[in-house]
Amino acid sequence: MEEFALIMRHEDGHKVASPEQIQIWMKQTMDWIGGIAALNKFSGGTGLPFEDSRVVRSNNVVTNGPFGEIKETIGGFIVVKADSVDEAVEFAKGCPVLQGEGNSVEVRKIAKGTAPH
After folding, report:
1. CA separation for the pair 66, 21 (Å, rounded)
2. CATH classification of 2-13+20-109 is 2.60.40.1640, yes or no?
């Protein structure tokens, strides 16, 4: 069995949702993750808030947040266990982030092996 990262991308991270809408999305997300965990296929994950974030570029140029010229931002990720990329894609299809127009979930296989020293 392999592990795959499901990376949640939001087309416009600058849009502000109401606290009520955020609560609805959080419940939907927790229910979605709970369904994957019930299959014993959830490995972990987290949200990635915009606060206290920086982008470091070549020549040590540092800018605030995941903003600027990019159209989409990464809102978070989870790691799932799956027998194939197709199974991981099926998990991704249930992600509540897909309710937002232009949002997406990127599915990436996690490389196995030892980290370089």
Report:
1. 22
2. no
